[in-house]
Amino acid sequence: MIATTDPGVVDPREVHLVALYPGDDPARAQLRRAVLRLRPAPGQRQFSGAAEQTLPQADADPDRIPFAVVWTGQNAPPGGAAVGFGVLDGGSARMELSDDPAQVVLLRAFYIEPHWQGYGVGRAACLALDTLVSEALPWARHVLLTVNERNEPAIRAYRAGGFRDTGRRHLGGPHGYQLVLARTVGSEAPA
Ligand SMILES: CC(C)(COP(=O)(O)OP(=O)(O)OC[C@H]1O[C@@H](n2cnc3c(N)ncnc32)[C@H](O)[C@@H]1OP(=O)(O)O)[C@@H](O)C(=O)NCCC(=O)NCCS
Q: Domain N-acetyltransferase: where (predicted)?
């Protein structure tokens, strides 16, 4: 359960994205263990897999950088609380989503732990992508993602986090059409 003094809004400055690599130092190894315990709500699993599957998949692919969404606000444990998970993918999957994939990285497998949803963490994590991308994939200028057209909360969160509809649609699975959204690294946060 969230433990801020004002549970309505999480301070975006207290939301960080921490890259996770196999063999990390003890603090990051602890974050790896923590994200493995985070699961989307049952009704959300059609939209995002759980880290217990998507983290090992990312570990096995040198083009993917898994990351923890970490909250460092008041009452957070030392090193912060893992409240979400995602993967940046600089591999070939981006080729079919962009006409100019050379500077594009995909955001995949992204979710916030259900108890933390609706507090602004997802939006803040989108804004924090700039720092992670600049550090881990400095060649990338745009972050792309696909989101199911029926996943209205996610579309709203992504828009709040600076993603814009590219107008492309992608049919990539059994759950219907996906919107392709893009965010330019370093773009202004929406008001
Ligand atoms: C999508 C997701 C990452 C958003 O994270 P979040 O922390 O809940 O989102 P935020 O609290 O930052 O909300 C951002 C905006 O989305 C809106 N929103 C969030 N959850 C919502 C919900 N369930 N219903 C309606 N709107 C919602 C907020 O009101 C806010 O809008 P505003 O800026 O206009 O006020 C999260 O809901 C999630 O993990 N969902 C399950 C997995 C999933 O769908 N992943 C995306 C796969 S593409």
A: 15-186
Predicted pLDDT of residue 1: 47
Q: Where are the domains of the chain?
A: 12-184
> Could you give the 3-state DSSP secondary structure of residue 112?
strand
pLDDT digits (tens, 9 = 90+) for 46-57: 999 999 999 999
In the sheet where 164-170 sits, what is the strand order? Answer: 15-19, 64-71, 81-89, 104-112, 142-148, 178-184, 164-170
Residue nearest to atom 14 of ligand 1 (CA): 157
118 lines ligand 1 (CB under 6 A): yes
Beta strands 178-184 and 64-71 are: unpaired
- Does 144 or 100 have the greater pLDDT score? 144
Atom 1 in ligand 1: residue holding the nearest Cα: 154
